[in-house]
Amino acid sequence: MGLKIKDVKSLNTGEQVDNTYFEKILDTSDEWIRTRTGIKSRYFTEELPSEMAAELGKLLEFDRDQVKMIIVTSFSNDLIMPSIAGKVHKELDLPSGCFSMDLNAACAGFVASMVLDEKYLEEGQEALLIASEKISSCLDFTDRGTVILFGDGCAGMVVKKNSKLWVSDESTYGDEDSLLLKKGEFIKMRGQEVFRFACSKVPESIEKVITKSGLPLEDIDYVVAHQANVRILDQVAKRTGIAGDKFLKNIEDHGNTSAASVPTLVSDYKDRFKDGDKVVFSAFGAGLVVNSILMEW
Ligand code: ACO
Question: Using a 6 Å cutoff on CB, does residue 144 contact ligand 1?
């Protein structure tokens, strides 16, 4: 059993900020940022994650009688109680039988919400999955090793349970130091450790789902991977043996938007996918975790 992506949309989040902005406030350069990360610009917004999620929810096209779940993923959540999902539920006036919750698995949150939905929904039922991040509010603008990587974003999908191919891998490696955000503080990151983790564990997770599916490597049409650093994407392509041009990319314009990265990427490339395509999703993040899915479009 699998999921059909019935609708996908992203919001235009705020002001586009290019690397030259950081040249003015930090000892860094556009050249360093582009060559070390692949990022040219990112968006910073004034809107709160809960406001963006509600705005996006109103744009998504779903069947009100079939919607059984709404999950909002965010680590930069402005609303602890009620959940953002509760707010979206209210603003969309969804039926009381629609299960709603927020989920935080940092950058891996959106793929985690897809995994959960596939297990929860019954054939024909639908769910709303929204990722909403205002990471700019969690950044130390004096920390050049971190601030240049992230951007704000909000994107989401309507998914519907179907009977197509679906295999997943959910791996957690228990860690509390390499990526840390405490209440009232800014993100602290050991960039090199996270980089090494991603380059070794993301390929392993992708290989697991391909092996479980029994498909040959050449049958993979696209890889929708978390946009954290273009050098990580290149390493993952090299280590898995999947052609680099099958890895979709928008990191150049958005930076790392955490949970919003995967649905924003799908939204940017939505006209590319066609029925029957075999698509790998993979996202890693604080925890440290990696979640991957191989599905038929
Ligand atoms: N501009 C100029 N120089 C810089 C900058 C900058 N913005 N940032 C760091 N440097 C310097 C360092 O101080 C260091 O200088 P030194 O040699 O004099 O000490 C030098 O550049 C090299 O630093 P490294 O940390 O080794 O640089 P690296 O090539 O590893 O790149 C980066 C750093 C971009 C952070 C990389 O490690 C990375 O992308 N890591 C993964 C991060 C990531 O994916 N995080 C998101 C995870 S998902 C989630 O859950 C949030």
Answer: yes
